[in-house]
Design brief:
Chain lengths: ~210, ~800
């Protein structure tokens, strides 16, 4: 139940362990990046360039450092949270090339050559995305620690399925755990965001904050 | 429960007499109250609100949804090191040697700490800690620490620990807790708490015409907050700043000051945003660890800031849990359903800690029962100490009591709702019963529980058709044998807990009309920050968004630890007082411009005006422009609680479930929770807390179970994929209905709601399962295997 094998992601814990164990790149890594990784790396830190929220970012990390820790500890992009550190809760969900991944289950080096998108780039406090605005309006959180992961998962869900049924919302969030107990509020938020985005699309303009 | 520090009895406080209208719609009560001199007349049933009771998104919402909210775990300071605790790997031992030499010589390690305590009583107990330049190196260093133990026999199972000859967790002279309490091996008790003995329970049981005796078991739950316990400690000379993931910044300050023997003036504790606590973060560090003290020591040794967060496994092992319970309830009644006696006898394990009590619901519910006796026992096991978890002991106790009431109703051939109504003295709950029954559709329940067991599965019942064809289905769909639905209910009750003193607030009105409000208490996710802005806005005639809130910092006026559902109703009255005093100063500054005295003025709708002639007004901003200096500041302190309309906070819950009798799987379909919440400050977030209680309760009832290995004494499911918590796919329709009650306990008539609705949920789920299947499951969590076993047993008896 809790083991996150997100439908939108090709990266499962199992495939990760298999590939990481062999020292090879995980599925989906470009040929160029694979070639680069064929060089002997580590155990000392090396400098790599990640593409985060559209910008190249250099980090110097050991090969064992996860994408999540590179984002949080090196780049101070702390929206994605470290909660279980093994893909069991979805609090670290980010987008890799538009698909949701658990950033705790991916080595930073394996993210080289991919577009990483975090919750920070989906909107700002002054200009919230439709999903973010709906979470605020519907009270789709309490402590807020699962919220960044939820926002990223909901955003990916609505991109794939702009008008999900309740069961589809549940399935789309199956890998995201909220301990405070806000799921029904989150479902309301997804529905609200979906409606607002559809209305904005029909009107031919991007959804405004709070709509 | 709110574990407030015990304070000497306060000196008598000068009071004034006044009247106010208490109660709820349809049940007004004129009451005499005696507030402290200088306090305000409470908001009551007649008050017309402009901001209170509204629905306001959280002020910090935009920060939380964009990843900008900085939690303790997210803060990074220049030169910061990463701390890591090392816990014992064995459950019971003497520590012979801790060799840290390899860890110390690892490049990147800057400081090491080892425990002075030689006795280990649970797996996960503090042994050593390191601080290093990266979390990975800190983990390496912790692994290099070699610990030599002299292992002892241990016991981790509640019932095994009760057996004669079980390995003792403590030697007799070391047993913690009140020495006057009887002790026998690992068992401490019986303890009969206040209000848990009345009349003669043996006589009451023998007077009964119908009685029920049943034994119930509840597993240990862990809090599992998503942000683990942790701190970031930073020294600047002899001044210490601690960022803490805590439910009590002042508790951390007190605890660290005393542990390190440093003056309070040198410590500042900050908690801006907090990633979940549920009662587990009320200690200065944690109930089973001194990690916060250790972080400060490491930071001092290394002369660098140290961030030390527990990892997920440590969080499960040493940071608290809710006690397991083994409870036997005897209830007696007359044939008409009037209760004659209730005997609640419980054994619970809070691990190495005392205080596993679960009898409290007996002292709250069915108080007309002439004979009651509650007897609690704490059973020591070699497991991490418990911590308060959302109405500590009450969900477990109410699971037993409210299941037993349900069993009694079945035996009496009475509607369980009618049986409760008959024995319930609370006027609030009597009003709530009808509301909840209507919302769940109580009339749809199986009039005869156990249709399935009795009839082996023919679709005859209306609920059954609902299960097959969807709610209100025509029944045309072909019946899926084996899925049955049922509806159950249970009651819960909580006491009004509040700090009458030791709570302060400051409100500042600036010359540009902006307003700041300062309260040191922390927002643990309840919506406290927003609620206090609403209270200030109500008093100042502004909107909540006009108030800039500052919370979670020991530099601000003192607030309570967030436990016992006491934060809102401890702080709201003092926020109102400070806002009121600031407003009076604003009136004094603006009065000459309006040509009246300050007493003739009022504030509402963003304006300051002459009460008799509202058209003569200034905007709030214009009025603030009349301030002589840059700002007005007013501070206030609470002096006492008022007399209460009702001491208790009443609630009742209804639940509909679907049980697959072939696989034993249980799905909650809908839950309705009806609650007294005082006068709600923010209806949106108040409802959210009630919904949250239902979800956590359903999770406890169906999934959560800390499993300790009998052979090794360690937790076998210390993460989130194996310690099961309710996930989105398990979700049900959760309905919260608030029934506001003007309680008059303070000048805002507010009450806390974090805990009350978590009390009835376990029993409501179990009772619904009984109604669906006729099978009574008395052990939580109700996993498919237990469900199937109970079904087999029910069939055998049918």
């Amino acid at each position: 139940m809790a083991l996150s094998d997100k439908p939108a992601s090709r990266f499962s814990r199992r495939s990760f362990i298999k590939t990481a164990g062999a020292g090879a790149a995980v599925a989906g890594v470009s040929a160029e990046a694979q070639e680069k990784k064929a060089e002997m790396l580590g155990p000392e830190p090396s400098t790599i360039t990640l593409t985060v929220n559209g910008a190249p970012r250099k980090v110097t990390v050991e090969p064992r450092v996860t994408l999540l820790r590179a984002l949080r500890n090196e780049l101070e992009i702390t929206g994605a949270k470290e909660v279980c550190d093994r893909g069991g809760c979805g609090a670290c969900t980010v987008l890799m090339d538009g698909r949701t991944v658990n950033a705790c289950m991916l080595m930073a080096w394996d993210a080289v050559g991919h577009e990483i998108t975090t919750v920070e780039s989906l909107g700002t406090p002054e200009k919230l995305s439709p999903v973010q605005a709906a979470f605020v309006e519907c009270d789709g959180y309490q402590c807020g620690f699962c919220t960044p992961g939820m926002i990223v998962s909901c955003t990916a869900l609505l991109k794939k399925n702009p008008s999900p049924s309740l069961d589809e919302i549940k399935a789309g969030l199956a890998g995201n755990l909220c301990r405070c107990g806000t799921y029904s509020r989150i479902f309301d938020a997804v529905n609200t965001a979906a409606k607002n985005m559809a209305a904005a699309k029909a009107a031919g303009k991007p959804a405004k904050r709070g709509e | 429960m709110a574990q407030q520090p015990t304070q000497p009895p306060p000196p008598p406080i000068p009071t004034v007499k006044m009247k106010a209208k208490a109660g709820f719609d349809g049940h007004p009560v004129e009451m005499d109250i005696n507030p402290a001199v200088g306090d305000l007349k409470p908001w009551d049933l007649d008050t017309q609100f402009s901001a209170m009771k509204g629905r306001y998104p959280r002020l910090e919402g935009p920060l939380k949804v964009t990843g900008r909210a900085k939690y303790t775990y997210d803060i990074k300071l220049p030169g910061m090191l990463w701390g890591r605790m090392l816990g014992s790997t064995v459950p019971h031992a003497e520590v012979v040697k801790i060799d840290t030499s390899k860890a110390e010589s690892l490049p990147g390690v800057k400081a090491v700490w080892t425990t002075e305590s030689r006795t280990v009583r649970f797996a996960g107990q503090d042994i050593a800690a390191v601080a290093a330049i990266s979390p990975e190196i800190a983990a390496d260093a912790a692994r290099l620490i070699q610990v030599t133990y002299e292992e002892k026999s241990f016991v981790t199972d509640l019932e095994k620990a009760m057996e004669p000859g079980a390995p003792p967790v403590y030697s007799l002279e070391q047993v913690p807790g009140n020495p006057t309490i009887p002790r026998n091996g690992n068992i401490l008790g019986p303890i009969t708490g206040r209000g848990l003995k009345r009349g003669d329970v043996a006589q009451g049981l023998s007077d009964a015409e119908v009685s029920v005796e049943a034994t119930y078991r509840v597993s240990t739950h862990t809090h599992a907050p998503l942000e683990p316990h942790g701190v970031l400690a930073q020294w600047d000379g002899d001044e210490l700043t601690i960022y803490a993931s805590t439910q009590g910044v002042f508790t951390v300050k007190e605890g660290i000051a005393e542990a390190l023997n440093i003056p309070r003036t040198k410590i500042r504790v900050i908690c801006e945003h907090m990633g979940g606590g549920f009662g587990g973060k009320l200690a200065p560090s944690a109930t089973g660890s001194q990690f916060a003290v250790v972080a400060c020591i490491l930071a001092r040794k290394a002369q660098a800031p140290v961030k030390l967060m527990l990892d997920r496994k440590q969080e499960h092992l040493c940071a608290g849990n809710a006690p397991s319970a083994l409870i036997t309830v005897n209830i007696g009644a007359k044939k008409d359903g009037s209760l004659t006696a209730i005997h609640h006898r419980s054994f619970g394990s809070a691990g190495i800690a005392p205080g596993a009590g679960t009898a409290a619901p007996l002292g709250n519910l069915y108080q007309n029962t002439p004979n009651i006796l509650g007897e609690d026992h704490s059973v020591f096991t070699n497991a991490g100490p418990a911590a308060p978890l959302r109405a500590p002991g009450h969900p477990q106790g109410a699971f037993a009591l409210e299941s037993a009431i349900d069993e009694l109703a079945d035996k009496l051939h009475m509607d369980p709702l009618e049986l409760r109504k008959k024995n319930d003295p609370s006027p609030v709950r009597q009003m709530q019963y009808g509301i909840g029954a209507k919302a769940i559709g109580w009339e749809r329940r199986n009039k005869k529980a156990g249709v399935y067991a009795a009839e082996t599965g023919r679709a005859t019942d209306s609920l059954r058709r609902g299960a097959e064809g969807g709610s209100g289905g025509s029944g045309a769909a072909s019946p899926r044998l084996g899925k049955v639905r049922g509806i159950g209910m249970a009651n819960g009750e909580w006491n009004v807990v509040a700090r009458g003193s030791g709570v302060g607030c400051e409100v500042r009105i600036h010359r540009d009309g902006s307003v700041e409000c300062f309260s040191g208490a922390q927002d643990i996710g309840s919506g406290f920050r927003t609620a206090m802005a609403i209270v200030a806005a109500e008093e100042l005639g502004l909107q909540p968004k006009d108030i800039t809130m500052h919370v979670g910092d020991t530099r601000w006026p003192e607030g309570p630890g967030s436990g016992g559902s006491n934060t809102t109703n401890s702080v709201a009255p003092v926020v109102r007082m400070a806002a009121h005093d600031a407003k009076q100063k604003l009136f004094a500054a603006a009065a000459p411009s309006l040509g009246v005295s300050p007493q003739e003025m009022d504030a509402r709708g963003g304006k300051v005006f002459v009460t008799a002639k509202p058209a003569r007004s200034l905007t709030f901003k214009q009025a603030a422009g009349k301030i002589a200096g840059e700002q007005i500041a007013a501070t206030a302190e609470r002096k006492k609680q008022y007399e209460l309309f009702r001491q208790e906070i009443a609630g009742t819950q209804f639940c509909e479930v679907e049980v697959d009798t072939e696989t034993g799987e249980i799905k909650v379909i809908k839950m309705v929770s009806v609650n007294d919440c005082g006068i709600p400050v923010n209806s949106l977030t108040t409802e959210s807390q009630v919904i949250s209680s239902m979800i956590q309760g359903a999770s406890w009832a169906l999934f959560e179970n800390r499993i300790l290995d009998r052979s090794y004494g360690t937790m076998v499911n210390p993460n989130l994929e194996s310690y099961k918590i309710l996930m989105p796919t398990d979700m049900f329709e959760a309905v919260s209905i608030l029934t506001p009650v003007a309680n008059l306990g303070n000048n805002t008539s507010t009450a806390g709601i974090g805990e009350p609705p978590s009390v009835p949920t376990l029993a409501a789920v179990a009772n619904a399962i009984f109604n669906a299947t006729g099978a009574r499951v008395r052990t939580l969590p109700i996993t498919p295997d237990r469900m199937l076993a109970a079904l087999a047993e029910a069939r055998r008896r049918a």
